Amino acid sequence: METTKFTLSEKEMPTSWYNVQADLPQPLPPLLHPGTHEPTVLPPSLFASELIKQESSTERFIEIPEELQQILHLWRPTPLYRAHRLEKALDTPAKIFYKYEGVSPVGSHKLNTAIVQAYYARQDGIKRLATETGAGQWGSALAMGCSFIGLECKVYMVRVSYNQKPYRRILMETFGATCIPSPSSDTQAGRDILSTDPDSSGSLGMAISEAVEDAMNRDDTYYALGSVLNHVLMHQTLIGLEVKKQIEKTGNYPDILVGCVGGGSNFAGTLLPFIPDKLKGREIQIIAVEPEACPTLTKGPDLYDFGDVAGLTPLMKMFTLGHTFVPPPVHAGGLRYHGMAPIICHLRRLGLIEARAEHQRSIFQSAEQFARAEGIVPAPEPAHAIKVIIDEALKCKESGETKTILLALSGHGHFDLASYDAYLSNKLTDYEYPHEKVEEALAKVPKV
Amino acid sequence: METTKFTLSEKEMPTSWYNVQADLPQPLPPLLHPGTHEPTVLPPSLFASELIKQESSTERFIEIPEELQQILHLWRPTPLYRAHRLEKALDTPAKIFYKYEGVSPVGSHKLNTAIVQAYYARQDGIKRLATETGAGQWGSALAMGCSFIGLECKVYMVRVSYNQKPYRRILMETFGATCIPSPSSDTQAGRDILSTDPDSSGSLGMAISEAVEDAMNRDDTYYALGSVLNHVLMHQTLIGLEVKKQIEKTGNYPDILVGCVGGGSNFAGTLLPFIPDKLKGREIQIIAVEPEACPTLTKGPDLYDFGDVAGLTPLMKMFTLGHTFVPPPVHAGGLRYHGMAPIICHLRRLGLIEARAEHQRSIFQSAEQFARAEGIVPAPEPAHAIKVIIDEALKCKESGETKTILLALSGHGHFDLASYDAYLSNKLTDYEYPHEKVEEALAKVPKV
């Protein structure tokens, strides 16, 4: 019988994170201060001292504290699957593997960094974390992380999602967090927006501004971000480090690695541990997949831009559609971000990864095919990557090549079934690249 | 570092189901024909020939076909966890373990039998399965099972759940099943009910009658049941067989085993492999937990009764509240059944297991405590068992005993978060034992 699931024991879980900054052929461009445009670091009033250190560290491996390892063991190592049934359905000679992060208690990879951020905040004597969330994956991960570490947690949830996805809000509350719709009257930023637009449905950029302000105004509070930053991506490298051990056991090595990108943390966590091999000349094609409605890597220019709408964050060098750009309402809420993790952008700049954009109707079609073959109903975000691995597997069918294809499957779609309903009942719209809105937003990017 | 998760490799998954009928000190009372009251077997027009054989088999182990083993490997073996964090929160010397079936793609143990029933139906040349579902756990499991085996699937879903739990319906549709609210106009049984009560919110008993009628009227269709029957319970014994291997690796043996009971399949699947040990004199306390609002095992008399409202099924000897009894609307939809698996009832009759009933506010309180300690948000059904393991762990704290407590955690609560919302916002009602309604229903049980 062919093996389906490649598991590792707790003892085989990596005990250090991998820091790609040790191996980059050129260093990352620095962060710039939002006011002075001078090189800067993350603000110590908002981030744990250890995380600020990690953000610019060039140590290759950074050890995971034992208490965190013990918590990670609840769901890690996560399984690597061979998609035998999907291969058969596609009639492809390709070997398809997927690394599944949906086994985490909150259903996605986000928990890998949430508990870490809570842990280092507590180490600094902090009692409370503030954050924003769009679709709610990150908010529920941080709620659980704070519950485990013993911190309070306040989540500003984009109002439209707050109303559409009550289950995510309830999940946060079950873990003891406070979750309110953003824009809210709890912050000046929120009050300003509400005074001009009382019915504002909110945006991720607005919610970030509220959470940052909340943390700036309270000595007992840090701010937490679920993607984009270097330390966040590093916490996710457990994914790729495990994959390397697992795929080695199968006797294969990925010819193609595919992941979806919003902020880029799941994709980075999976691919970064393969970068040293690639730099040594090993052939591996690495593909980032994003929505056609928010095509940061495929269509955005490479600029210094803010991480939030209000311009409170440091400027980051990245492919961007402009920090004031509000993407069309595609169902993959986690991919609706105007920018991209600086590390991902740097790898793209260096030609180490490539990018593709997909429309949402085709990604749901691929997700449905995947679910019927493999049983797992994927979240709309990784469904983007599934579209591409199916395309690649079908190319192999034509060419007869036996390529090994690796999919980063970041989580399940249990809280996203309304979007499947829209797909199944033929109510899903594809959004063309909104290039006029992007031009407008790009005009507001500061000149550096 | 203490081990948290005890996994097994695919190769360690049992390759046979355990059939407790080989070891029962007294045989099970026979099924009786609904009309003649003579001993009978399951109707061959509704069930696969192999399942009818399994239902009354006294072979100790029945081999699992290789194709099914391969599918089971997608999520099996499931992990056994040591609840270190819950133990610490309770400050108990007890060792708490839980066997978690929520890692299955549909989030519960139901899939363990769903794919098997689909497989044996296909073996008989059948093209389609009909079934009922209450909360939707069973319906979504059978939908996936049919998708994997290549059968059509029609699910009659209790109307009130159909309206309250759209996500479960969408999940079934994603797997290609047809799911309609019951009572429906697709069957005579449904039309009869609708003609007298057009706004009927439905019941499990009504939905069973519709699914059975559907299967009786079509040559290409069998009926599938998600619990109660002997073969269904046997398919679930993989759970307990795996637990025995896993807990042995920890150097422990359960002093107490606790599971929730509706039809009884998750509880039975976990405990049955321990029965031979118990019969040989090994001390193990086995506790079934049910809702105070539907206390079949703790308050029902031991009678022959029907499995459905309309009286279409064979009569089964079981503890029952009467086949026409409609339990109060507690949130644990999976435990709202008037009867109980004959095997579970037989073990109770023989004094091998005991039973307790719990109120829903206290079970959600326990579930919340469990979620905050262990990260997993349990479904309302296993939350009943969690209440009891916490009670037992606190008794150990008082007595100083280091008992080993094993929890059967049948699934997660991702689709049940509305009930957590009701609990968290203090809107949850406890229902007293509705003894007058039970008396009424018991008066309608046929005299055998």
Task: Characterise the protein shown here.
The structure is a homodimer of 448-residue chains. Chain A is 40% helix and 16% strand. By secondary structure, the first copy, chain A, is an alpha/beta fold. The first copy, chain A, has two domains: 255 residues, Rossmann fold (3-Layer(aba) Sandwich); 166 residues, 3-Layer(aba) Sandwich (Rossmann fold), CATH 3.40.50. In chain A, strand 8, helix 5 and strand 9 form a beta-alpha-beta unit. In chain A, helix 4 packs across helix 5. The longest helix of chain A is centred in the C-terminal third of the chain and has 20 residues. Chains A and B meet through helix 2, helix 5, helix 7, helix 16 and helix 18 of A and helix 2, helix 5, helix 7, helix 16 and helix 18 of B.
Secondary structure class of chain A reads alpha/beta
- The unreliable regions of chain A are none
**Radius of gyration of chain A, CA atoms, in whole angstroms:** 20 Å
| Oligomeric composition of the shown chains | homodimer
From the 3D structure, determine the CATH topology of the largest domain in chain A: Rossmann fold
Percent strand of chain A: 15-25%
Task: Identify the CATH architecture of the largest domain in chain A.
Answer: 3-Layer(aba) Sandwich
Biggest chain pair interface: A-B, 46 and 46 residues
**Mean pLDDT over all positions of chain A:** 96
Q: What's the count of strands of chain A? A: 17
Spatial separation of the terminal alpha carbons of chain A: 60 Å
Helix content of chain A: 40-55%
